[in-house]
Known about the structure:
The complex is a heterodimer.
Chain A: E1 5-9, H1 15-32, E2 44-51, H2 55-65, H3 75-90, E3 103-111, E4 121-133, E5 136-147, E6 153-164, E7 193-197, H4 201-209, H5 219-224, H6 234-245, E8 253-259, E9 267-276, E10 284-290, E11 297-305
Parallel strand pairs in A: 1-2
Antiparallel strand pairs in A: 2-4, 3-6, 3-8, 4-5, 5-6, 7-9, 8-11, 9-10, 10-11
Helix pairs in contact in A: 2-4, 3-6
Chain B: E1 25-31, E2 35-36, H1 46-61, E3 70-73, H2 85-91, E4 101-103, H3 110-123, E5 129-136, H4 147-158, H5 162-169, H6 193-203, H7 208-227, H8 253-257, E6 261-263, E7 273-274, E8 282-291, H9 293-298, E9 305-314, H10 327-339, E10 348-351, H11 356-367, H12 369-374, H13 396-399, H14 406-425, E11 430-437, E12 441-449
Parallel strand pairs in B: 3-4, 3-5, 10-11
Antiparallel strand pairs in B: 1-8, 1-9, 2-8, 5-8, 6-7, 9-12, 11-12
Amino acid sequence: MSNLQEIGLTELPSLSKLYLNAAATAARRRILGGSAGEPALPAVSYHVRNVRADVDNLTAYQHLVGESASDTLPAGFVHALAFPVSMSVMNRDDFPLPLLGMIHLRNRIEQRSPIHFAEALDVCAWSENLTGHRAGTQVDVVAEVTLHATGETVWRGVSTYLAKGVFLPGIDKSGNHHAATGREDFTPPDPTALWRIGPDIGRSYAAVSGDFNPIHLSVLSAKALGLRGSIAHGMYLASRALADVGPAKGDTFNWDVAFEAPVFLPARVALDISTTPSGSGAWSSDYTAWNPRSGRRHFTGRVAARG
Amino acid sequence: MAAADMTTGGDRQAQQAPGTTRRAFIVGGNRIPFARTGGAYVKSSNQDMLTAALEGLIARFGLQDERIGEVAAGAVLKHSRDFNLTREAVLGSSLAPETPAYDLQQACATGLETVLGLSNKIRLGQIDSGIAGGVDSASDAPIAVSEGLREILLDLNRAKTPAQKLKVISRIRPKDLAPDAPNTGEPRTGLSMGEHQALTTAQWKVTREAQDELAYNSHRNLAAAYQRGFFDDLLTPYRGLNRDSNLRADTSLEKLASLKPVFGKTLGSEATMTAGNSTPLTDGAATVLLASEEWANSRGLPTLATVVDGEAAAVDFVHGKDGLLMAPVFAVPRLLARQGLTFEDIDFFEIHEAFAGTVLSTLAAWEDEEFGRTRLGLPGALGKVDRAKLNVNGSSLAAGHPFAATGGRIVASLAKMLHEKALTEGRPTRGLISVCAAGGQGVVAILESA
């Protein structure tokens, strides 16, 4: 990121405004057509300094995803805190992929140090790895959170998004078949948990995370974007799995999730969460979630102690 | 995480010979600062606060992944969904998930009773370690539906056809929709705790000035204890609080004297109980680590004090034979007699300040010759408590009183005080704890420096 142009924002941008702007950009592109020439990611990074968590919002988030309301920010809460900055990267006119309708494929988070809720944080985000996917084009959006006082990077997240059906000239898709996972045979194991997720969870998670993407809010708004109904936020599901893993994960860990079939609301989701302590101190917990009726896999992931 | 499987139960330090007892030690404690209701913990649940206090204790004594013999705690204001509150807090903590837990409820004596119960188990050799505690939230209190609506909803659940359901729903009346919030009223008398205490305060002729002075001393003593760092190893900050939010270090007798009475205004005598000399509703949690000597020693943990003995009492308050909060008046002489002790043998008195009037009525009863003879069965008065030994680091009037958390607060603080005084004076020291509770109950205990 050293050769990226830094763009400072005075405060966290409003996600609802970003979504409105994304809709306008989508309409403009539809009328005017996409930009010509070699597609490339904008060489910029966005920065917001001196951000603090709102404690009431933190408690509401913790209760919603099943965390105990401790003073340490859950890793998924930090993702939500940084998300407006990540959105700013994807919301630029020169960003080569349409923000609305992008599919969250993967998320990898490094919780390098525990973060107390009262800490002042600096957040920055940029995009990288514009690559082909058998179903379109994918991109990584990287966010980093550092302590304002010391500059120590305490949290890092890489979110991989897919623009389905968007094939850009010059972006090779043939070489990325290894990235096309999720269609392998899946035989559901015996579940260790069953979640009953109500129809309003999309709105509830939007309220605590600020992510008011219309595909999560209601059947109507989701249908307007081509889905047959509203779906749960991927990060809500992953955060709930992280909460289920529990305090055994300790203060610092790597947390990965790969999303497959979306969870249409309301839903029952079966899970298998298995924790493997090993003698060497390398602790990890794997989780898999699926639809108990159809057997389709929703997501898989792992939480592992940082070695 | 330790690689060993902690479910096997083969980690006993020493097997207790059947029929013998051993001593139970207080290793230390941890609580979160107490917050006035509607304050810093307004959105935190009982489980959140108990888990926060527990996590601080685990961090202080290195108990991560440890299988504790048993954890006992409780809450007075408890949601019915929290039936396994303590076990859920354990599962949300860094203790080994193989740690068993149970909930206990004895109104404001809950916290002290968990300490007595677990220390008895340690004394009997049933467990080697235990964590006692309590939590309460007046902010996040449960609210039930009205009795009428509850019956309708249960009938609705039993109705089978749409027509039956409609018929049940049609029974709902506007009055059924009024929620049923908890209150501090006694079910049998309808009087609030404050109104009950106002009767007792008047009966023992406790003056407004004496109550204000006790409240003033509580704030002054608690502020001084914070000032010299007494709570540094007894407390972990939570939600931005690092000391009890009810504490008014700058309060004065003049300020306290300016407050209007809130209880006892309809009595024949002068009303003397104000918001300043009564305990406010508070949110908070407290925990205490208990252990056998072997368990503590093998982990290099301190042993501050032993739990010597405890006694519960109850009074017939319903028709005014005794005051609602006067049960400790009877428990203490029984406990002292059993241990062969007098007030002269006690270095610190920790008398829970539900109201300043409660403490002063209790002291007055113990100093009363006739009461000693006729009610306590003694030759005369039980004795006079040296005020210089009373609540020396403040008590509930200053700290606040999250009902079930108060016992843990007192036990951990007193254990530390006894340990410190024993070190400086080179002799064993003893402390007496007295906690009154709703329903005309009380629990008292004696701790001794280790």
